[in-house]
Amino acid sequence: MKQTKLYSILFAVMFISTATWAGKARLISIDVMQKIGDSIKTTGEYSEEIEVELADVVETLDSNMKFYEDTGCSSNESVDGCRQAKAKIKENYAKMLNVIKTKLPEMRTALQVASNSVVGELKRNVATKDVPSLQEYLLSQTSGESPVVESKRRYNSKRLNGVRLSSRFEDYYRLISASRSQNTEPLVVTAASVLLDMKDSMKYIDFTLDTIEEQTVGMSFEASLGDVTPQMKNVVGGVQAVLFGKPLEVSQVTPHNIEFEEVSPVNESWESQLGL
Amino acid sequence: MKTIMLFIILLSASASYADNILADIQSGFTNIFSTKDVCLVDSGQASLQAVVEQAEKAMSHNKCVRYLGEYIETMLNTAATTDPGAHVYTAVGQFIANQATLGRVGKLEAKNLVKTYFKKEFVTFSSIEKKQMSSLVCEYGAGTDMQLRESLAEDAKNELRKKELGMLKAMDDPAAYRSTQDFYDMSLVLLEGGCIAAGNKIN
Question: How would you class B48 by CB atoms within 10 Å of its CB: exposed for 0-12, middle for 13-18, buried for 19 or more?
């Protein structure tokens, strides 16, 4: 008798704790998301400052390179105008590399700091959970809700190409604020989405810094540098992609409307038989 | 004389042995062909109902039970091309449930088949052991970051393809499929984020 009672209590406790966890509105608290949002906002403002500093030099270099190619200078290097254009490219390129070499690591550090706060939360609230329970949580958060007007996420691509880095941070901040106020998507998914995108940005920065390193080494050995080389284009392209949102090859997935509707809600007898 | 007799005995013994082997081969071929015949469900049927009836007949043979997945795919493909709509869910679901009632497949397997083709929930995820996700579904990639196990992402993608066949093509319910697709994306983002966080040294 005592044993039966004990089991009943045990089952009740298990049921209540499972229900409490599944019924929780969020895996990440609003307060924590507020802090993450603030950190992201600060990083965004900082990246804007760097963008302003770099914008002129990168734009000038880009137009120098375009002029050089469009006027057929690559096959007429000895022409005076082409020689001048080449010298201009070299000068601006070196200038850009210097600015970037000092600013990109700072930017990376800022990104790292912002992402650390997200990592900590996901580590505590997602990585420790089991997959079936996470799925149940997501299902409980997404079914039966009113339709979400517009998907704010860009899943699959996870790269916000065509968006300035500072705008990305604005985007993140907006996403987090919207999630807080409208409760349209699980905050934890927003956080994971932001983290994946920040990781991508950091990878681009690392790639660009590595390429710059190679280029700088090349410059010290090759005094005549100034040709529009593929590596040079890579560096300029990489900087433009990371900081100024010039599109790279990965295509952006168009956001679509989401309607959270369950399939055929009619409760068929065979469904109850299978426990569906 | 003795040698001749011995030779004749050996010859007849080997002939009967060869006959036995030949009979075995023939019966093997017969089995193969008969299995193929009774288990075959024609993919070129004019209606879902016709496929369901043929599959019901085939499933009454024990040896055909292993083709259940293929039968469901044939049903859904037929429905998609002949008469897509919400009724497909009931027809195919009822067929699957019947197989469980008749004890041809387990109840859990039947339930999972319905979920695989018609529900937002992913069997790929719900069938994972209830242990800390980072220890089961994450792995180290080429870099230092932890990432979602590729085979799991691949399995989920395959299940999404099945849901596309069931919900979008056979049931002609784009809203339900879009919602499922979005759920799939969210799940992968959450799991990937969890893996990255798990592999990070920050606390």
Answer: buried
